[in-house]
């Protein structure tokens, strides 16, 4: 083949990368399913573009790549390449005539498994300092795009590592074990537009060398070990940046009043130590995350951010009511005000706009979290317009009234519903069964009464084993989950893997419908602290995915189903304080559970090793009781009648003296009559005996 340009990217090609045509100048095989190692001999002296990104390539980077001296762009990202990144350059540099990198404009080796130190691109690996000062210092001088993120590089970086990269505009070193030991007074030779240092050790001091990088449009300093006050120049230097991300540090101080004048569309400063009030938002902001700080006071009353789609202010110390201006943010897709001290009527903000038919707040809502506040009111009716809502958390408030029947009709895409620890009452709506996507239902700690509707067994998302696809959950924050008697934090992605039905601590009564065992995808089933009766469903063992099962503090009776031993994933079980009886089932998983006595305590009718009661002795004791229990009804009736009749006569004589005298007179008379009759008969018999004697 003599082609100079081959572009077969974004197809379904398989197999290995073939040897390259000698005259080829551009090769794009990215986003296929190519596998195996790269060819050890890549002889294509005219090659300028080599793009093999997003395949399944393995092995090391062949040395022959570094003989391609006219390369303009090299993209090997998104593969499984490994090996010491420095060793490749060291061995290739043994050839002093190699001019690899002189024309290189873009180098992307990100998302691989490369190890070793950060490559000293400008260095003669035998004598770094001497090489740095000589004519070869202009190699890599044309490099504008450098992405080494998501590897396993381990280095301490100093100014010299970047000294020759005068044209560098895009630098991404995220997710490596890199330490930037840069002098605070260093003046970089480049003017960056994109700077990403996520999970690199940049701090503890805020990097002063960024002060002159006013061209930066994207700045990422998340989890960078920063422990400092954000300097005033930061807000000025990056006032025109579109993305500012510095979450997961220990940055402190207050947010500036001029935040509203910034151009950023995305600001993520969550999980820091910022204090003070929440300022007015930038007018162009689309995503604002200030969660998990120490912000206090009321929310701004006149929010003017018409493009805002995501507002995260969770886990602060905010007070007051939800301002009505939030309801003007009609593009809102995700709102999280959880974990604060907000109060007032949950629906007041939206009630003020009911008369305005043009208000579209809630139409695009995908996720709403108002949990862990002091909000009052009924289930918010404005959610009837949120047809695309997938996540709703109203738990730990003071909401009352019933759960609405319109949930499936108006929020048909709902996947997660948490309303625990409120004051909701009434019955469980039977219509919930039509929420086909619902895989997490938590209505615990309310005043819900009635029986568990058998229709819950038709929740489709709980009837199948959950897939590993977490594509719908793109959010990084964690959410508390009550499971195994503990509060645990899970990310949205992990939430997708949880299939939960928690009806605990209500006033539910009656029998648990056998159909509940059709929900074979359940990982957590909690029915504790209710008034449920009769037997545990016999097919409970069909719930093979169960990790946690809590049926404690009810009135269940009968034997523990033997199918329970089939729950091989079970790590938490609580059957305490019921009326269960008989032998405790055995099984490897059941016997491996912790706190065996606690699991079954409060069930005096149970026997077996976990409760220290021998079943044979226990059965003998029970059999005596069972004989009484199974006595024929005729005998039982006769016995009861005899006792009742005897005591009726006895009590009557005891209470009436005349009856008592008559009774004993009758007894004396009967005694005399019997005595006379016996005496006469006896005398007559004796006479006959004597007459018949010889």
From TrEMBL:
Q: Where are the transmembrane segments?
A: 635-655
The record's Gene3D superfamilies line, in alphabetical order, gives: Ribonuclease Inhibitor (3.80.10.10)
Q: Would the keyword Acyltransferase turn up in this protein's UniProt record?
A: no
UniProt keywords, alphabetically: Cell membrane, Glycoprotein, Leucine-rich repeat, Membrane, Repeat, Signal, Transmembrane, Transmembrane helix
Where's it found, cell-wise? Answer: Cell membrane
Write down the membrane topology.
Single-pass type I membrane protein
Q: What is the name of this protein?
A: Uncharacterized protein
- Which source organism? Triticum turgidum subsp. durum
């Amino acid at each position: 083949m003599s082609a100079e340009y081959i572009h077969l990217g974004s197809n379904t090609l398989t197999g290995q990368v073939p040897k390259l045509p000698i005259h080829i100048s551009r090769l794009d095989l990215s986003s296929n399913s190519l596998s195996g190692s790269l060819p050890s001999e890549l002889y294509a002296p005219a090659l300028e573009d080599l793009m093999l990104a997003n395949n399944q390539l393995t092995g090391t980077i062949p040395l022959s790549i570094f003989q391609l001296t006219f390369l303009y762009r090299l993209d090997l990202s998104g593969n499984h390449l490994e090996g010491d990144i420095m060793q490749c350059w060291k061995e290739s540099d043994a050839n002093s005539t190699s001019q690899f990198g002189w024309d290189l404009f873009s180098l992307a080796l990100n998302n691989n498994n490369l190890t070793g130190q950060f490559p000293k691109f400008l260095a003669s690996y035998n004598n770094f300092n001497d090489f740095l000062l000589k004519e070869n210092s202009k190699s890599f001088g044309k490099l504008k795009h450098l992405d080494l993120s998501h590897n396993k590089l381990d280095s301490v970086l100093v100014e010299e590592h970047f000294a020759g990269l005068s044209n560098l505009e895009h630098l991404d070193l995220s997710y490596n074990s890199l330490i930037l030991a840069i002098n605070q007074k260093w003046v970089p030779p480049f003017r960056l537009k994109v700077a990403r240092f996520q999970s690199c050790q940049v701090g503890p001091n805020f990097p002063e060398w960024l002060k002159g990088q006013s061209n930066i449009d994207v700045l990422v300093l998340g989890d960078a070990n920063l422990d400092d006050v954000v300097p005033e120049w930061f807000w000025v230097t990056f006032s025109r940046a579109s993305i500012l991300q510095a979450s997961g540090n220990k940055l402190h101080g207050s947010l500036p009043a001029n935040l509203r004048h910034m151009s950023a569309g995305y600001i993520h400063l969550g999980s820091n130590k910022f204090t003070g009030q929440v300022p007015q938002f930038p007018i162009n902001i689309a995503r604002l995350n200030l969660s998990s700080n120490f912000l206090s006071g009321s929310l701004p009353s006149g929010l003017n951010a018409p493009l805002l789609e995501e507002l995260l202010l969770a886990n602060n110390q905010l007070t007051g009511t939800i301002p009505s201006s939030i309801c003007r943010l009609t593009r809102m897709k995700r709102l999280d005000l959880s974990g604060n001290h907000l109060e007032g009527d949950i629906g007041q903000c939206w009630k003020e706009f009911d008369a305005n038919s043009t208000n579209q707040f809630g139409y695009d809502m995908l996720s709403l979290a108002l949990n862990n506040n002091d909000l009052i009111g009924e289930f918010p009716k404005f959610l009837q317009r949120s047809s695309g809502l997938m996540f709703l958390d109203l738990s730990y408030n003071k909401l009352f009234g019933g759960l609405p029947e319109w949930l499936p009709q108006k929020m048909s895409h709902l996947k997660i519903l948490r309303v625990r620890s409120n004051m909701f009452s009434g019955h469980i709506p039977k219509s919930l069964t039509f929420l086909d996507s619902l895989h997490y239902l938590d209505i615990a700690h309310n005043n819900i009464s009635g029986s568990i509707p058998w229709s819950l067994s038709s929740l489709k998302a709980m009837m199948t084993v959950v897939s590993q696809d977490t594509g719908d959950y793109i959010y990084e924050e964690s959410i508390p989950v009550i499971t195994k008697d503990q509060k645990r934090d899970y990310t949205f992605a992990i939430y997708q893997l949880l299939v939960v039905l928690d009806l605990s601590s209500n006033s539910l009564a009656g029998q648990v419908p056998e159909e509940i065992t059709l929900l074979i995808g359940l990982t957590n089933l909690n029915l504790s602290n209710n008034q449920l009766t009769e037997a545990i469903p016999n097919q409970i063992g069909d719930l093979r995915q169960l990790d946690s099962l809590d049926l404690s503090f009810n009135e269940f009776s009968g034997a523990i189903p033997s199918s329970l031993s089939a729950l091989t994933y079970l790590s938490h079980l609580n059957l305490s304080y019921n009326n269960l009886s008989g032998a405790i089932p055995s099984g490897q998983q059941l016997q491996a559970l912790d706190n065996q006595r606690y699991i079954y305590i409060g069930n005096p009718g149970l026997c077996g090793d976990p409760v220290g009661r021998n079943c044979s002795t226990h059965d003998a004791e029970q059999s005596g009781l069972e004989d009484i229990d199974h006595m024929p009804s005729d005998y039982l009736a006769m016995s009861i009648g005899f006792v009742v009749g005897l005591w009726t006569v006895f009590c009557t004589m005891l209470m009436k003296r005349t009856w008592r005298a008559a009774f004993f007179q009758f007894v004396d008379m009967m005694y005399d009559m019997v005595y006379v009759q016996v005496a006469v008969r006896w005398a007559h018999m004796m006479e006959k005996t004597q007459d018949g004697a010889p």
